[in-house]
Each structure stands twice: as structure tokens, then as C-alpha cells.
Amino acid sequence: MLIYFNQQPFSLTPPCTVAEFLAAQQQLRPGIAVAINQQVIPRSCWDTQPLNDGDTIMLFTAIAGG
């Protein structure tokens, strides 16, 4: 299957969860948020949220300030 991660195409063998993909990309770290197809996925769902062909994944870093 083909997904897009931060606008870059990636070919994956299903099944693959958000957590598995982020771990493989060395991106599984504190302070990040993930959106799939413009919908934020709670961290508590990363272990069970499957990735599907054509998904667009965006990774965001939390920034504190005021």
C-alpha cells in the first residue's frame, strides 16, 4: 500500500499501525501529534489505529508559548 508521510510517499506492507510506522521512522517520541487525513489521532489510539492505502499522515511537534 502507498501512504504519504509529511508529503513524502512511503510503500508499506499491511497491516501497519500508526505506532509501528512511527517507530520504523524513528519518530515515536514525546511531544508529537499525528493527523491522518487531516484528523488528529489521539496518542492512546496509535497502537490500534491501522494505516490504509492512500492515507496522508502529518506529524506535528507541540510548541509551548503564549
Automatic annotation (TrEMBL):
Organism: Alishewanella jeotgali KCTC 22429
Pfam family, one: ThiS
PANTHER family (alphabetical): SULFUR CARRIER PROTEIN THIS (PTHR34472:SF1)
Protein name: Sulfur carrier protein ThiS
InterPro entries referenced in this protein's UniProt entry, alphabetically: Beta-grasp_dom_sf, Mopterin_synth/thiamin_S_b, Thi_S, ThiS/MoaD-like
CDD domains listed in its UniProt record: Ubl_ThiS
